[in-house]
Amino acid sequence: MSALIDNTNNTPPSTNYPCSNNPPAVSARSPHVIIAGAGLAGLFLGILLERASIPYEIYERSADIKPLGSIMCLSANILPAFEQLGLYEELLSLSKPLRDSGYMLTDKLEHIAQFESISPEVVGYERQLFPRPELHAMLLKRIPSDKIHFAKKVSSFVQNQNGVTVTFEDNTTTQGDILVGADGAHSAVRQQLYKTLEKERLLPTTDSTDMKKGYISLLGTTTALNPTKYPDVLKEDCQSYGIVGDGSNPYTWVTFTVPGNRICWNVVVQLGINAAADEQFDCSDWVTQQNKAMMDSIRHFKTTYGTMGDLFDATPLEGVSKVYFEDQLFETWNHERTVLIGDAAHKLLPSTGSGAVIAMQDAVVLANHLYDVKPTSFENIKKALSDFKEDRFDTVKDQHSQTHFAARLQFGHTLWERVLRHVLFNWVPRTLQMKQISRDSAYRPQANFLPQAPKRGTLDVIHQKPSKRLQKEKEEDEARKKSPI
């Protein structure tokens, strides 16, 4: 049902399908899903829909995707879904397990703390770290080439009781039953949806505020390093060090070893601490030259491997990215046939490493609700999208709060944040920390239309909600068997 319509002659796109005044259509077929955005959330949703036999197409605004070269961590909260989809073993081949959770040091390389971790015998999985582009490439190759379209940025869309029509900036259109905005923190789908809701006075005032920007991050991944100089790269598990600047230095820099004898690094500067930090914020022209200027100013920062300059020299400059750490939890995730997932619905600080996990959890839970849309009707679609938001919002809200707290511990340089760091690592009992980690690890949604991944670990996990559609089909099948012929 979703096919690109060329509208280069500037004639209005056909609206017979979405804008008909006929009664809402009801169909036995599965809904056709339009996914805007080929990031991790959009690709993971596509893979899930492929397995669910739900028709979909992905439209990516970029002509050539270049994911940030940042480090990523996947945990037990999403790894069971990878196992279901047959992706787990491949993920292990491109990652390193984080077993000791890493160390926090002063800028003089004095010990501050070791982050607590929970035994894999308890949670069932080790946390896996790897460069983000490699996960993206792994997921992208699982999407059939005829179901993904590049250089297709959403310009506008129209939705009503009979469908949704999306218009792209190249003046082509496509039609479907559901539009999923998986197009990132500055989502075009969200912007268009919110404009409409604002005109109708349906948008909460909190959703019209700008995202908060408290930090700037510079990140990259080295080429293969000499193990003689960097022996940590040969270790089976990931070696992680976070180094916090003193009171006059508003920077935090972190290193992680990854497969291929490489090191991922990340330098974070907290805004509002001093003039030097805020100068980085004022450099809005974040091109390669500006990145190099920032790198030159912090080359002398010490690491356990020498200086940051040593790592910079081993990193291709064109692969270095400079980004804001933005955050906002939006209240509005869905309206009629449109739904937002991932950063489009909730931009979280990366301090807990949970942003990608949460985005892919969104994809899992949304796929479960889309699978239950039967028959396909306007009312069933609206209910599915509303139920998705209801299922996810409180969990994401809790994670949003945790990322703020973790950011203060890892990247904070105010007096209060330094006191907080000292109290937590020296006075809070380990049992309380483990209790929180265990509680967080218990939530691990899976696709309920696929066989469940085997239970791993001794931790009691949150019960998986069964598929309403499969339950109903089972009941109908049992009723048919009992009825006389």
TrEMBL record:
InterPro entries: FAD-bd, FAD/NAD-bd_sf, FAD_mOase_fung. Residues 1-22, 450-485 are annotated as: Disordered. Keywords: FAD, Flavoprotein, Oxidoreductase. Gene3D superfamilies: FAD/NAD(P)-binding domain. GO terms for molecular function: FAD binding; monooxygenase activity. The keyword Oxidoreductase applies. The keyword Flavoprotein applies. Residues 470-485 have a biased composition (Basic and acidic residues). Residues 33-201, 315-372 form the FAD-binding domain. Residues 7-22 have a biased composition (Low complexity). PANTHER family: FAD-BINDING DOMAIN-CONTAINING PROTEIN-RELATED (PTHR47356:SF2), FAD-DEPENDENT MONOOXYGENASE ASQG-RELATED (PTHR47356). Belongs to the paxM FAD-dependent monooxygenase family. This is FAD-binding domain-containing protein. It comes from Linnemannia schmuckeri.
